[in-house]
Specification:
The structure holds two protein chains of two kinds.
Chain A lengths: L1 H18 L9 E4 L2 E4 L3 E3 L10 E3 L7 H6 L9 H12 L9 H5 L8 H4 L2 E2 L6 E2 L1 H12 L10 H12 L15 H11 L10 H5 L6 E2 L2 E2 L10 E3 L4 E3 L1 H10 L11 H13 L9 E3 L1
Parallel strand pairs in A: 9-11
Antiparallel strand pairs in A: 1-2, 3-4, 5-6, 7-8, 9-10
Helix pairs in contact in A: 3-7, 6-7, 8-11
Chain B lengths: L1 H13 L31 H9 L31 H4 L2 H10 L40 H11 L5
Classes of the chains: A alpha+beta, B mainly alpha.
Chain lengths: 285, 157
């Protein structure tokens, strides 16, 4: 009896797997202090992807009901704690001469829009910049501090705060002009089969999105939701931190966060999500 | 050298047939994707094959394949074809070739090569994310490949 029940369960699972292989149809409206905001979590693929897919989906569509629900209300989203910490840091006189972010930029809303268009090539310097690169520039050059650890809590709290200011805006990174060479390089990395398992980002997130690799429902690997709060780690994760994990899982030597490779890759992956909403801090299992 | 002799002696003792030397990953001969002879020289153990196929850090075949004969495996993936009846479709030599390096049978396959040590881009030291120290070992040993093949040969419909 027991064995039979198990078998049945196994079949049930296999069926469930096959039936729910696609991203779930659902709509994300987030209850915030300022009222509800509707997110674009499914959008027509940007032109440069049209030959491989018709629609792009936020990773939100691939998660379980309970995980998706946590993102519907800021009150339930554990990532908001980090946003609050980021706000405290923003207002603190942490600079060598007592400077604070607020002292130069006023409120964090002055950062609205930045997350939606980064990584971008900075107009003045011609350097490819992520949000972290901009933070680092202020921390080191304008506040006289040592660089924050790229994936440490100060950096990620600040990233969370700044990302939130663009919540609901469509991702819109430039891929032409001065961005073009970085975009090409990122694209090449995306399609390179790394490591002893010889797997590329595209193998999992383009060829097999919607399928299950063991218990994991493969999403398109979009980064519009980053940083994400990860229930498994009980912490937030930046896009490049996620890249480290994915490359490591191919039995490869990874690149480091803020390496030229991962910056180019971040630009390229972001561009695959052009049109999706920035989710601020999303929730994943 | 001495160590190898010892190993061979031990193997000969436990099995009646004389043991052939192990075929190194770089020396495997593929004929149209097939590997005709045993890689380890020792018959495979299907029970250990199951363990290799279902253990994450070993073969983890169930990450991608379902196998009805193993209903207790939790959350098998559905990336690849079910392995049911695989012994009806493929010969022993073909299965050995597929497990050792599926890309010799299916061009550009997503399936990893389990008995291969060269020709990778930025290979790592297992799942550490770091560069390997010294020579890269294959993901599975010659004997583990034989064990997996022995189990696959039981999958008839």
């Amino acid at each position: 009896m027991h064995r039979k029940a198990m078998l049945f369960a196994a079949f049930g699972l296999a069926f469930a797997g096959a039936a729910s292989a696609d991203p779930v149809e659902d709509t994300l409206v987030i209850d915030t202090e300022d009222g509800p905001i509707e997110m674009v979590t499914k959008a027509p693929a940007p032109d440069h992807l049209k030959d491989v897919m018709d629609w792009v989906y936020s990773g939100w569509h691939y998660r379980e009901d309970e995980t998706r629900d946590l993102e519907r209300d800021d009150f339930d989203n554990p990532g908001m704690v980090y946003v609050d910490r980021g706000l405290d840091l923003w207002n603190s006189a942490i600079g060598k001469n007592g400077e604070s972010c607020a002292g130069c930029h006023q409120g964090p809303e002055s950062m609205a829009g930045l997350r939606a268009v980064t990584p971008r090539v900075d107009e003045k310097t011609g350097v490819l910049m992520t949000v972290e690169n901009y933070i680092d520039k202020c921390v080191t050059e304008r506040m006289g501090l040592e660089s924050w650890n790229w994936t440490g809590s100060e950096m990620k709290d600040m990233l969370a705060l700044i990302s939130m200011q663009s919540r609901g805006m469509p991702v819109n990174v430039a891929i032409d002009g001065p961005a073009a060479p970085y975009w090409e390089k990122g694209k090449e990395i995306y399609y390179t089969r790394f490591g002893q398992l010889e797997m590329s980002c595209a193998n999992c997130h383009e060829d097999n999105q919607g399928r299950y690799i063991r218990a994991d429902h493969l999403s398109q690997g979009q980064i519009n939701g980053f940083p994400v709060y990860r229930l498994k780690d009980a912490g937030i994760l930046s896009a490049q931190q996620r890249f480290v994990g994915c490359v490591r899982d191919t039995r490869a030597e990874t690149f480091k966060p803020n390496s030229d490779e991962f910056k180019a890759l971040e630009l390229y992956v972001a561009s695959r999500g052009n049109g999706l909403s920035v989710e601020g801090v999303s929730v994943r299992h | 050298m001495k160590r190898q002799l010892c190993l061979v002696a031990a193997v000969t003792l436990s099995h009646a047939t004389p043991a052939l030397p192990e075929v190194a990953p770089t020396e495997v001969v593929f004929v149209d994707g097939r590997i005709e002879t045993s890689l380890s020289g020792t018959p495979g153990d299907p029970a250990n094959g199951i363990k290799v196929m279902t253990t994450n850090v070993l073969g983890n075949c169930v990450a991608c394949h379902t196998i009805s004969a193993l209903p207790d495996v939790q959350f098998p993936g559905n990336i690849a074809p079910p392995l049911d009846g695989v012994a009806d479709r493929w010969s022993e030599a073909e299965l050995r070739g597929i497990v050792a390096n599926a890309k010799m049978t299916f061009e550009g396959s997503f399936m990893p090569a389990f008995y291969k040590t060269e020709g990778f881009i930025r290979p790592g030291n297992g799942y550490t994310g770091k560069a390997p120290e010294g020579d890269l070992p294959p993901i599975l040993t010659a004997q583990q490949i034989e064990d997996v093949v022995a189990f696959l040969l039981t999958l008839k419909e």
